[in-house]
From TrEMBL:
Transmembrane segments: 62-79, 191-212
Family: Belongs to the short-chain dehydrogenases/reductases (SDR) family.
Record-given protein name: BDH protein
Gene3D superfamilies given in the database record: NAD(P)-binding Rossmann-like Domain (3.40.50.720)
SUPFAM superfamilies: NAD(P)-binding Rossmann-fold domains (SSF51735)
PANTHER family: D-BETA-HYDROXYBUTYRATE DEHYDROGENASE, MITOCHONDRIAL, SHORT-CHAIN DEHYDROGENASE/REDUCTASE FAMILY 9C
Organism: Pterocles gutturalis (yellow-throated sandgrouse)
Annotated keywords: Membrane, Transmembrane, Transmembrane helix
InterPro entries registered for this protein in UniProt: NAD(P)-bd_dom_sf (IPR036291), SDR_fam (IPR002347)
Pfam families for this protein: adh_short
Lineage: Eukaryota, Metazoa, Chordata, Craniata, Vertebrata
Length: 214
């Protein structure tokens, strides 16, 4: 594969693969944590390492799909975890690649669930049936249903304008001076990120706790 591209040149790599799910920390199995880390984090690292020699040779671009939930979580901590990790991987890589003329860009979409279908609607019944006996002793079906309804409502509010994210990816690949980060999100989503970045953690926790209690 590398020999083939060496003869025609290689400009850009887009790490776009990702999966998502819903669930509080104790509701998810270790196997699920491993699967998400393997796809969302290690998958991007594998492809990056495989194509790094060509990207350095041709002074290309590497684009990573992150998310605004790298900054906070509202019921999908497992997804947030992988996106926060990929952000830190990119931060290190971006600095290391400067001397080779390779640009590293991060796309940070807001809620585009209706465009990407990355997260199907949550079934409270399925979640309950998969819980361990220990978790069932702590929670009840009503709580699980409330959380499922909350998360499904978030999914239903997702933007259908997926082309906005694609436009950011194209700009990252073709612009003479691409941004390190492209935040493609609604104003209220950007405001939430701003609160997370600038205010003490206790403030952000209060905001998110209030949202979860509604």
């Amino acid at each position: 594969l590398l020999r083939h591209f060496s003869s025609i040149g290689f400009w850009g790599l887009v790490n776009n693969a990702g999966i998502s799910t819903f669930g509080e920390t104790g509701w998810l199995s270790m196997e699920k944590y491993e699967k998400f880390a393997d796809v969302n984090l290690l998958g991007s690292i594998r492809t990056t390492l495989a194509f790094l020699p060509l990207l350095r040779k041709y002074k290309g671009r590497i684009v990573f799909m992150s998310s605004i939930v790298a900054y906070f979580s509202l019921g999908n901590g497992i997804y947030s975890m992988t996106k926060a990790a990929i952000e830190k991987f990119c931060d290190a890589l971006r600095l290391e690649m400067k001397k080779f003329g390779v640009q590293v860009c991060i796309i940070q979409p807001g809620n585009y669930a209706r465009s990407t279908k990355i997260q199907p609607p949550v079934s409270a019944e399925e979640i309950w049936n998969e819980l361990s006996e220990e978790e069932k002793a702590v929670y009840n079906k009503e709580y699980v249903q409330e959380r499922a309804n909350f998360f499904n409502n978030i999914l239903s509010e997702g933007s259908t304008n997926g082309n906005e994210v694609v436009d950011a990816m194209v700009d990252a690949l073709t612009s003479p001076a691409p941004k390190a980060r492209y935040m493609v999100a609604k104003l209220k989503e950007k405001a939430l990120v701003l609160v997370c970045a600038l205010f003490p953690t206790v403030v952000m926790d209060s905001v998110l706790s209030f949202a979860l209690s509604k």
